[in-house]
Amino acid sequence: MASVHVTYKIFKVQSRLTLSRAKPLAVLHPASAEDIAGLVKAAYESTHGFTVSARGHGHSINGQAQTTHGVVIQMSGSRGKRLVSGKPALPLVYEKEKYIDVWGGELWIDVLRSTLKYGLAPKSWTDYLYLSVGGTLSNAGISGQAFNHGPQISNVHELDVVTGKGELLTCSKEQNTKLFRAVLGGLGQFGIITRARISLEPAPQRVRWIRVLYSNFSSFTKDQEYLISLHEQPASKKFDYVEGFVIVDEGLINNWRSSFFSPRNPVKISSLNADGGVLYCLEITKNYDESTADSVDQEVDALLKKLDFLPTSVFTTDLLYVDFLDRVHKAELKLRSKGLWDVPHPWLNLFVPKSRISDFDKGVFKGILGNKTSGPILIYPMNNNKWDHSNSVVTPDEDVFYLVALLRSALDTADEIHNLDYLSNQNRRVLRFCDEAGIKVKQYLPHYTTQEEWMDHFGDKWGQFYQRKMEFDPKHILATGQRIFRPSFISSNVAL
User: Fold this and answer.
1) Which of residues 174, 202, 230 is at a domain's end?
2) Mean pLDDT over residues 333-340, rounded?
3) Is residue 413 classed exposed, middle or buried when 0-12, 13-18 and 19+ CB atoms within 10 A define those classes?
4) Which residues pair with 198 in a beta bridge?
5) Which residues span the domain enclosing 219?
6) What does each C-alpha distance from 18 to 128, 252, 373, 377, 417 come to in angstroms?
7) Do residues 217 and 154 share a domain?
8) Contact at 8 Å (CB) between 55 and 74?
9) Which of 140, 169, 202 is the last residue of a domain?
10) What is the pLDDT of residues 92-123, one digit of tens each?
């Protein structure tokens, strides 16, 4: 343990997305994967026991990266970013093989900057790039490219992982396969990712970014599902990114438009014959570079002609590829300048089966939410066959399912419908509606408080999940903030 650099200081580790707070016994700033292995092994062999939680950039929700009974490992911003002694610092780009080795605490924005130097980029993204590699791979990592390339966990060649026994193991589809499958989408339950080998592709130079509006939900989902069905087509015959969002507030429709044009002429939902007072936006992109610039307009027009959006609602902009991928960060900077970023974010992310998305629309978008919201509501479909179901993550059992993400911000100084209690209660109402209506949703970035709820979440995968836990973290010392397993040394009457 001599090489482990630990800050022995009690302080609050606060998630940026919730008010959840915890006081760890100490915080480790690792200089290497060996430091992490040494700490976890000490926890595993300890007579009294203590827990270990890995923290990336502080964007986990509901306190999953926290612990009150042990040590938090601060992965992002760690000093050495080295795998083991004698190996070079990360990241390392392998240009010929088209992959990159990165430290588990590396932010995706820094991964992008490293790969663009070689004209390469990862295939699958999250909408926000200031997240850690290990953090998103422990969940899934999704964005508008997932219909085509699958989630980020479907684009990983190899991992170095510190298990709950303190073992530092390399794993892949060919080596230590069970651990590899467990860790991807495993919510941090089986090990801490210290290195990931990420698949790359040639990076485009520019992006044609298009938004169109729908007043009819059926037309909106039909078009989204058509676009993701083109995933096997040549690049010229499909879009590279397909997302969408719901507009239930007239103020938001003009915020939506202002990303593309100066909002001098405000748009009113009522003027567009919105079904139930709700509009839907389809957001699509076409990647291109100098060699394809002459054909991009023709390709976009050919695809748009097959869609049934409101004819006068086409909004288009053109920007650098890196600027498109980093678009959310610009919004973050605006919110920070207004003091609206470091506030509670009671987010709810759901995978909704295609067969019930219309019922969800009627009950939630046109029902529970009313005509006001306090943040974006994303909705877009994904192809289930792009997900590797031998990994730990669970999805609805249908060929196509939708992500619905209620990304709201709570403001104590605002009216009641924007405060934390109201929005948290609204999330519970949404989940209760799905349960009573028999809509078999799966939470993405899941949060439950009892093992019975977790068993229901994993369904048929629970037995495998439990067995993997017993093999790789038998004393239940990792990621206790998820509240899936209780550490063996903590009494059942002590709160986690």
Assistant:
1) 202
2) 80
3) exposed
4) 100, 156
5) 206-443
6) 17, 23, 18, 18, 17
7) no
8) yes
9) 202
10) 999 999 999 999 999 999 999 999 999 999 99
Are β-strands 241-247 and 21-22 bridged in parallel, bridged antiparallel, or unpaired? unpaired
Whichever domain contains 188, its CATH number is 3.30.465.10
Give 396-411 pLDDT, tens digit per residue: 999 999 999 999 888 8
Report the domain count for the chain. 2
Distance CA 33, CA 91 (A): 14
DSSP code of residue 48: S
How far apart, in whole angstroms, are the C-alpha atoms of residue 430 and residue 424?
10
Three-state SS at 109: helix
Instruction: Please tell me whether residues 240 and 179 are part of one structural domain.
Output: no
Q: Is residue 300 part of a domain?
A: yes
Residue 168 within any structural domain of the chain: yes
Please give the Cα distance from 355 to 225 (Å, whole number): 12
* Residue 228 included in any domain: yes
Whether 252 has a pLDDT exceeding 90, the answer reads no
Residue 11 has pLDDT above 60, yes or no: no
At CA 128, angle to CA 423 and CA 218, rounded to 5? 65
Residue 354, both tokens: 């295609």
Bridge-based pairing of strands 70-74 and 51-55 is parallel
**Same structural domain, 221 and 171:** no
Closest CA to 332 of 75, 113, 16: 16
- Residue type at position 297: D
pLDDT at 491: 58
Model pTM score: 0.91
What is the residue type of 36? I
Instruction: Tell me the per-residue pLDDT of 161-209, one tens digit each, with 9 for 90 and over.
Output: 999 999 999 999 999 999 999 999 999 999 999 999 999 999 999 999 9
Rounded CA-CA distance 114/93 in Å is 7
Which residues have a catalytic role annotated?
Answer: 59, 127, 243
Of 162, 182, 171, the C-alpha closest to 469 is 182
pLDDT confidence of 153, banded at 50, 70, 90?
A: very high
Residue 234 within a domain: yes
